[in-house]
């Protein structure tokens, strides 16, 4: 409750999103500790709200001055949850690409991103996309908001964790706290995933509000 990020202002981006004010503050706060020892990566930006807040913090950090935030998404529209989160003007057809909508909302900071359209795990509608890959060296900061099942989490972990920096890489798992939800939902498996890693990730911070957890 007395965490230092609570004292920050929850800035308004104007970008649709499903993250809490505390998450917004936290992304801006934690970015000040980025050292440049590895890349900053986001999995699952949707329309760019979390991306905006993460970059808002990173751009104040001199260690990020020559870097870009690497952003991965399949950019496939899932109507069953996305339609209700936005106005009609932002909706695209089921399983159509929403990358143009993302690019419209993120145009003002497009130069600070390296956007890559990949499938993080196999899902309906993304069969034509190349799988997530990484050949860009160490990863220091990773924001994960791309799915809650063990299958999805294992997919990104297998590809990215070999590039983690021991005792340095911070993994922010946006959906970790969803195991608190009642009634329990079968797809909220993020904590089960981290519990199954045998201590490979160490819990360091947990927010009070929002579905996020760091390891």
Per DSSP E runs of 2 or more residues, the count of β-strands stands at: 6
The amount of beta strand, in percent, is 5-15%
| Rg on CA atoms, Å | 16 Å
End-to-end Cα distance, whole Å, is 19 Å
**Global geometry:** globular
Order of H and E elements: HEHEHHEEHEHE
Strands of the widest sheet, in order across it, are 3-2-1-4-5-6
Mean pLDDT: 92
Specify the structural class: alpha/beta
Give a short account of the largest sheet.
6 strands, mixed
Low-confidence stretches: none
| Helicity range | 10-25%
Helix count, DSSP H or I runs of 4 or more residues? 6
Q: What descriptors fit this protein?
A:
215 residues, alpha/beta
Short overview:
It is built from 6 helices and 6 strands.
Structure report:
The chain has 215 residues and is an alpha/beta fold. The chain contains 6 helices and 6 strands. It has helices spanning 21-30, 49-58, 79-82, 99-105, 150-160, 190-195, and strands spanning 39-43, 69-73, 113-117, 139-144, 170-173, 213-214. Strands 3-2-1-4-5-6 form a 6-stranded mixed β-sheet, with no helix packed on it. It is globular, with a radius of gyration of 16 Å. It starts with 20 loop residues before the first helix and ends with a strand. The model has no long low-confidence stretch (mean pLDDT 92).
């Amino acid at each position: 409750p007395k965490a230092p990020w609570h004292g920050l202002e929850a800035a308004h981006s104007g970008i649709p999103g499903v993250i809490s004010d505390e998450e917004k503050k936290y992304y801006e706060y934690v970015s000040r500790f980025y050292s440049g020892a590895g890349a900053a990566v986001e999995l699952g930006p949707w329309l760019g709200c979390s991306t905006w807040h993460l970059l808002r913090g990173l751009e104040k950090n001199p260690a990020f001055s020559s870097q870009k935030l690497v952003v991965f998404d399949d950019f496939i529209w899932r109507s069953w949850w996305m339609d209700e989160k936005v106005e009609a003007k932002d909706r695209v057809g089921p399983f159509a690409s929403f990358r143009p909508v993302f690019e419209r909302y993120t145009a003002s900071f497009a130069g600070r991103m390296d956007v890559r359209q990949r499938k993080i795990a196999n899902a309906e509608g993304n069969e034509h996309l190349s799988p997530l890959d990484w050949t860009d060296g160490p990863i220091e900061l990773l924001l994960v908001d791309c799915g809650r099942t063990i299958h999805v989490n294992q997919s990104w972990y297998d590809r990215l964790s070999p590039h983690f920096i021991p005792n340095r890489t911070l993994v922010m798992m946006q959906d970790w706290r969803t195991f608190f939800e009642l009634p329990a939902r079968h797809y909220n498996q993020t904590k089960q995933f981290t519990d199954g890693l045998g201590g490979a990730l160490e819990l360091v911070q947990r927010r009070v509000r929002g579905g996020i957890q760091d390891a």
